Every structure is written in C-alpha cells, then in structure tokens.
Amino acid sequence: MDKTIVDLIVKKVLEQLQAEDRRILVEASGRHVHLSKEDAIKLFGTDELTPVKELSQPGQFLCKEKVRVIGPKGDFKDVAVLGPCRGKTQVELSMTDARALGVAAIVRDSGDTAGCPSVWIQGGNSMVEAPSSTIVASRHIHMTPEDASRFSVKDGDKVSVRVHGSRKLVFEDVLIRVNPRYALSMHIDYDEANAVGLNKEAYGEIL
Questions:
Q1: Residues 125 and 148 in one domain
Q2: Is 138 helix (H, G, I), strand (E, B) or coil?
Q3: Same domain, 132 and 156
C-alpha cells in the first residue's frame, strides 16, 4: 500500500481516538434526596441506608429507602434517596418539579442551600422538616485532577459544553468539580435532558 495512503489512515485513526478521548459521559439526574444522619435516624430509625445500586460516582449509591417530599402546593411520592448520609439534608429538583411543589426554583451548586426553600420529608411513619434544603442543582462535570489537566480546566471553573443528543445543544456555565475520587461525567437534570434529547449515544464536548 502506498505510504501516503497509510499515513493518511494513521492520521485519521489518531484524530478519531483523540476526539473520543475528549468525550464526556452525560447523565440525567432525577429528583432525589440526600439525608443527614439525624434525619435518616428520625425517618428510618438508622443512619445506615440500604444500598441497592452503585452510581457512577465512586462511593455513591441508590438506596432501598424512599421518601415523600411535600411542598406548599403538591408532593412527590417514592423519591429516591442517595447515600451515604451527608452533613445536611438536601433535596434536588428540576425547575418543573419546583413549580409542581410550589417552591422557588433556585439554581445552586450542591451544598450551597442557604436561603433556599424548605420542604417536609416523610419516610416510614415519620416526618421531618428540611429547612433551607431545596435546590435546582447547577449543571456540572465531575472529574479527577488528571482529567482536569487533560481538559485544561481547574476546580470551580465554568465552561460551555456542547451535548450531542438527538437535539444538540450548548450548555453554558457548567461547573467543573475536581476530586481524586470522582469519575468523569456531566450531570444535568431531566428538564435539560429532555431539551437536548438525551439518549445512550449522547456525549458532552467542552468548547
């Protein structure tokens, strides 16, 4: 085979591998609750939540336990609880969910709940109030320090990401979260996932 053709094939293969190496898994995050140990004990009698499925982020899991989230105008039954327990209870909704509950849809980074709406949470035969707990989570990307170096970003940066779903979109102000324990993935809520036509073939690309 002509050397020029071989070189061209090698170049195309390397370009394809490099492009795939920069693809980011995009996951849709449905409404869910992170419970504090105190609230878990009040609701279920224990802070040892029962794992039923590992999530993409190491150490995180879907729990057997489910809760009812109650707002001023409505409620959601069988809401997923994610473990392990955290220092403070946090409820994560989409903007559509927030309207259905009758609470303000405040976009915040995870853990930043000061001044956010309060809801009630029911689990088992008990109920607790979760003050300043409810957010619409900022779209974000989890990555390791090695990933951050590869993408030339750092923890706390905000980037634009083109998501290649069936309705391709560019999401702006996507927060970069860097930690050695993370696995590379971008998290968006169901409103955003529906807007982009998220499917199994979808992936993100930092611009």
A1: no
A2: coil
A3: no
Q: What is the pTM of this model?
A: 0.87
For the stretch 57-110, pLDDT in tens is 999 999 999 999 999 999 999 999 999 999 999 999 999 999 999 999 999 999
Give which of 48, 125, 56, 136 is closest to 91, Cα–Cα: 136
- Can you read off the two tokens belonging to residue 198? 């998220």
Task: With a cut of 80, say whether residue 150 has pLDDT above it.
Answer: yes
Query: Quick check: 20 pLDDT over 70?
Result: no
**170 phi and psi, to 5 degrees?**
-110, 120
177, 155 Cβ separation under 8 angstroms? yes
Q: What pairs with residue 85 in β-bridges?
A: none
18 found inside a domain: no
Distance of alpha carbon 116 from alpha carbon 88, whole angstroms: 13
Asked whether residue 15 carries a pLDDT value surpassing 50, the answer given is: no
Please state the domain count of the chain: 2
* Domain boundaries, position 169: 23-27+139-206
